[in-house]
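User: Fold this; tokens only.

Assistant: Input:
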Amino acid sequence: MSDWYKDAAEKVKDYWHTPYGLIGLILGICAILIPAFASFDITAISIIEWAVIAVIILIGCAVWWFMHIPRVPKGKIGIGVAIAYENTEQAKTLRADFVNALKDLLLQSELRHKFYFVELPSALADQLDDRTRAGNVARRCKLMFMIYGRSRLRTMPEGAAYVLDLSGLVIHTLVDEWTQRQFGEDFNRVFPRRLIVASNNSLLECEFEAKRIDAVARYIIGVAFALGTYFENAETILLDVEARLKRLIDEQKEALLSVLYSQTRQRLTEIYHGWLAILMNTYIVKRDQSMLSQAEIVVRRLREYDSDSYRAHQSAATAAFVLRRDKQTAMKEIRACKSINDAGWQYSEAFLHAYDGDLDSAYRSYRNAFDAPMEDPTFATQCEEFIQMILDEEPDRHWLYFCLGLINFRAKRDLIAAQKDFQYFIDRANQGRFNTQINVIKEKWLPEIERELSSTLYKNEK
């Protein structure tokens, strides 16, 4: 193809989306069909042939409307680039060196099946002078991430160079104002606002800048997925970013890349924490043990980034006990939390002592739990429900009613429930094995409960 045809093709590409493109399409249809029907005699065109011409023009207009701005196919992550160039030669150079390099990086990676690359025409990019317009275009194209800006050729102290002033935006799930602000600050820290590329060395420099922006684009998309709690997509993308940045840092030491690498690892840590919280909360609500199986996988991944995570220890203990009744592993995980000033792990320790009937040790752990601060105010209720679930599965462990009574008596202050739980324990407990607990309930706790209930009833009657 000659340079003339190439230039014409570039012009068509740049102006196709504009009204000029539509006018050109209509004129082209007329220029082909009218002579064909009329044999260069317009008066010879019949009404039916005029109707055919009109229908074809309408079809052409409809095709133009749906194709004048590219759209990302359903199920793909759209990444768009819209750069306004000063002239055709500049457009050729930067498209070949920068835009195509970025496109190749996205579409030749292991994640190529997830991404769809869109380059918007220079004439359209020239109209994107604020975030509102850019956001509207990104939504029409169904993009998730868009880089937009303009390129200029300027004389620098080192010689002629291309100056790219860039902006970026993400179309992400609606989140609260605080999260939006944090996301915006994160975006601003990692996205390069200006690139300066020497014109005599543009290919080499553009390839590196394309790699950097490719990593930034993936990072931003991964974070956006995480905000929408699409944790699997976020994890896949950010792990890919982490590996790419590690290679880039080895190739070229640069502070920005090190900062982005550190932030990527931090975001992966946050993703695993959030993912684990959702899995455990779902298990608590639905008692679906498959959630615990998934939680164990996430725990292993989280520990690569946060080896001593409190959430990971608690989740691993629950999974080990519920899935396999592995009390030894569960206790090891719980005791790894001893430096944390929270009642949660102490409730878990107390239950594990009580499970095999060591109520003396369980009572000591419960006393510590009742005096400790509680990160999750619903944890005592969760423990009560968990113990009741174990009793439903293993009714012979009736001594666990001692734990239910203590939780209702000391933590929840549900005196009627505590009274029933303690009485159930007394009626079924082995006198020789649990003599100490039976005596303290009979001689101290039940009378105390009776007094408090009587006092409450008296006040209500007055």
